[in-house]
Design a protein that fits this description.
The protein is built from 15 helices and 18 strands. The protein has 488 residues and is an alpha+beta fold. It has 2 domains: 135 residues, OB fold (Dihydrolipoamide Acetyltransferase, E2P) (Beta Barrel); 255 residues, Bira Bifunctional Protein, Domain 2 (BirA Bifunctional Protein, domain 2, 2-Layer Sandwich), CATH 3.30.930.10. It has an 8-stranded mixed β-sheet, sandwiched between helices. A hairpin with a 4-residue loop joins strand 2 and strand 3. Helix 7 packs across helix 9 and helix 8 packs parallel to helix 14. It starts with a helix and ends in an 18-residue tail after the last helix.
Length: 488
């Protein structure tokens, strides 16, 4: 539709708005009592045939001329046909009906019947205009092919593509299932600050805001980890938070600057127990939300049934990159291995950072079925406990499905001296220009000095999980209002 045509159609609708007002008809009406939804009428037709109902919805189609017409109304559950006759509603109502446009919202009182063609329909006894639509809706197959327009104007997307609601209904069921499982396991859900003087718990660039009264900068949280660990110190032994996280980073099919995650902490367990929790939780959620443990994602069948394979990062890198890091012991040798593999690394990169880069570059996208990759380098795991067997590594794992990280977990570092040493190293990197390096959090270190019990922690990206369970190729498909570049 051209801009000129759009303006012409909008002008016509404004003329109809004027027509309504001149006749004392409120174009933006009041409340309306709805007795049945479209689905309730379809499913309960046997009991409702011949009965009076009141429905409300948006007109999505009109047809017919003369003294009788058909239309379809769309409500939250689906759509239903209505049939309106001049003889039944009278001249004033029928004249008003003729002025209605696709997109207008009306309330209808009528009797349920089935047409000769077999379609369940409501025969209109009277109706009321609830909202006049001043802009024409795009045609389903022609006006909303622009993917960015769909994300930018999600309200139109939901009107024109009502099947999209299924994704977001399923998202709600997934989140409800997560909470249900954790509640059954005795976890306490809490809320921690979204704004804080220190952005901690992850290596990410934060968003910065300013508090006028306190005259200080505040950061939108990049993780909930450090506040939840403070609660472990305080004696809450099984705790989680599900909420929004903010990271000042790029946008892609798997990244949005504002996203939803859940972090779960349990005292007196380690990362092995977190693996069990991860696989059991995701299995439970799939069965509860979808009714099955096998899902199809982009043509690949994924089996979420536990147990999932456990592989060390050494094993995965050797399998997919052909490099045996168990035989590489220093930074220089690691750099030579990376260069031989065709990967450029910074001169300052350490053995652990290079191992992680090789894993991300050559291995992640090969991990299609659910798998735990464990024993990450300490250089990229500033909050995880070091392994007794190899101090270069930590008791940390990430869960991968279809080449994407779906969960990150570790045995939590609770040694305040070692945590300070790692924070100091991160602070030095930050001073050198790394805006994603961890900030020094003195209060968190003080909390550790009071004593945090050994614990396991787990983080799961809710949006990526919803992508998987709804077969959605982009994170924008599962976030109602994703971040977009402003129009010029």
């Amino acid at each position: 539709m051209t801009e000129e045509n759009l303006n012409e159609l909008m002008a016509v609708r404004r003329e109809k708005l004027k027509w309504l007002k001149e006749r004392g008809i409120d174009p933006f009406g009041k409340e309306y009592t709805v007795t049945h939804s479209s689905v309730q009428i379809h499913e309960g037709f046997k009991e409702l045939e011949g009965e009076e109902v009141q429905i409300a919805g948006r007109i999505i189609s009109k047809r017919g001329h003369g003294k009788a017409s058909f239309a379809h109304l769309q409500d939250a559950d689906g759509k239903i046909q209505i049939y309106i006759r001049l003889d039944n509603v009278g001249e004033n109502q029928y004249t008003l009906y003729r002025q209605l446009d696709i997109g207008d919202i009306i309330g209808v009182k009528g009797e349920v019947f089935r047409t000769q063609k077999g379609e369940v329909t409501v025969s209109v006894q009277n109706f009321v205009l609830l909202t006049k639509s001043l802009r024409p809706l795009p045609e389903k197959w022609h006006g909303l092919k622009d993917v960015e327009l769909r994300y930018r104007q999600r309200y139109l997307d939901l009107i024109v593509n009502p099947e999209l609601k299924k994704t977001f209904l399923l998202r709600t069921r997934i989140i409800q299932a997560i909470r249900s499982y954790l509640s059954k396991q005795g976890f306490l859900e809490v809320e921690t600050p979204i704004m804080s003087p220190i952005a901690g718990g992850a290596t990410a660039r934060p968003f910065i805001t300013y508090h006028n009264a306190l005259d200080i900068n505040l950061y939108l949280r990049i993780a909930t980890e450090l506040h939840l660990k403070r609660l472990l110190v305080g004696g809450i032994e099984k705790v989680y938070e599900l909420g929004r996280i903010f990271r000042n980073e790029g946008i892609s099919t798997i990244h949005n600057p504002e996203f939803t995650s859940i972090e779960i902490y349990q005292a007196y367990v380690g990362y092995e127990e977190m693996m069990k929790l991860t696989e059991q939780l995701l299995y439970y959620v799939a069965v509860e939300a979808l009714g099955k443990s096998k899902v199809n994602y982009q043509g690949v069948e994924i089996d979420l049934s536990p147990p999932w394979p456990r592989k060390t990062m050494f094993e995965v890198v050797k399998e997919h990159a052909g490099i045996d890091f168990s035989q590489i012991s220093d930074n220089a040798a690691a750099r030579r291995a990376a260069e031989k593999a065709g990967l450029e690394v910074k001169d300052s990169a350490t053995w652990g950072e290079i191992l992680n880069e090789i894993f991300e570059k050559y291995c992640e996208d090969k991990l299609l079925q659910p798998v735990f990759v464990k024993d990450y380098p300490v250089d990229v795991s500033p909050l995880a406990k070091q392994m007794d067997e190899d101090p270069r590594l930590t008791y940390r794992f990430e869960a991968f499905i279809m080449g994407k990280e779906i969960a990150n977990a570790f045995s939590e570092l609770n040694d305040p001296f070692e945590q300070r040493r790692r924070f100091e190293k991160q602070a030095a990197q930050r001073d050198a220009g790394d805006e994603e390096a961890h900030m020094m959090d003195e209060d968190f270190l003080i909390s550790l000095e009071y004593g945090m019990p050994p614990a396991g922690g787990l983080g799961i990206g809710i949006d990526r999980l919803v992508m998987l369970l709804t077969d959605s190729p982009s994170i924008r498909d599962v976030i109602l209002f994703p971040t977009l570049r402003p129009r010029d």
